[in-house]
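For the sake of transparency, this paper describes our internal protein records without simplification. The tokens are whole numbers drawn from a learned vocabulary of local backbone shapes. One such record is reproduced below, unchanged from the form in which we store it.

. . .
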Amino acid sequence: MRILGISGSLRRDSHNTSLLRAAAMSLPSGVELELFDGLGDLPHYNADIDVDHAPEAVVHLRETIAGADGVLIATPEFNGSIPGVLKNALDWASRPFPDNALRGMPVAVVGASTGLFGAVWAQAETRKALSIAGADVLEDEFPLGQADIAFGDDGTLLDSELNERLGEIVGRLADHQRELTTAA
């Protein structure tokens, strides 16, 4: 089973990309996590160019999501909400509606910030946008506050309880995908 990890941050040393890497270290047996590396290549959403001919970066995003068994999104919080680059990616991935790459896709959302709240608002906004697009969104919340001091040299979370909780969320995402496959 392949889970696609999407970080809502373009920063080289992103805490949210680090959070996805930490999640990759706690995957259940038989599950792999692939980090998507193309958010910065996406143009601003424009329905006119989507109708005529979706740009190659958009096609790559849609195909990569469609080829995954589940998606794990890690979002920072910008001005109390979802970062523009992530919202833009969700807008592209949610088209054409209703038959889009996110439709029925199991998705979990986690988040990290240097503040105390761990991107709680951005996670809620991301889950809302995903739900409207038709994704099968897990309601789990994982706010990692003070992310600038949360990771060890090996990339794991220093707090073992948080490491365990992150692993549980990824495990639930994988289990949910298996349940959907079995029901189909």
